[in-house]
Amino acid sequence: MTMATAPTAPSLPKKRVLLIFSGLLLGMMLASLDQTIVATALPTIVGDLGGIDHLSWVITAYLLAETVSTPLYGKLGDLLGRRRLFQFAISLFILGSILAGFSASMLQLVAFRAVQGLGAGGLIVLAQAIIADVVSPRERGRYQGYFGAVFGAASIAGPLIGGFITDHLSWRWAFYVNVPLGIAALVVTSITLPSSIRTRQVRIDWFGIALLTGAITSFVLFTTWGGTQYPWSSGIIIGLAITSVVLAVSFFIVQFRTPEPTMPPRLFRLRTFNVASSVSFIVGMAMFGSIAYLPTFLQIANGASASNSGLLLMPFMLGLLCASVGAGQVVTRTGHYRVFPIIGMGVATVGMFLLSTLQTDTSLWTSGAYMAVLGIGIGLVMQIMILATQNEAPVDDLGVATASVSFFRAVGGSVGVAVFGALFNHRLADMLGGSDAVDLTPEQIQTLPVAQYNQIADAFASSITSVFRVAVPIVLVGFLLAWLLKEKPLRTASANARKMARQKEHFGEDSLAAVGDPAIVLAHDDEPAAVGARERPEP
Question: Check: CATH 2.60.40.10 for 3-205+258-498?
Answer without folding.
Answer: no
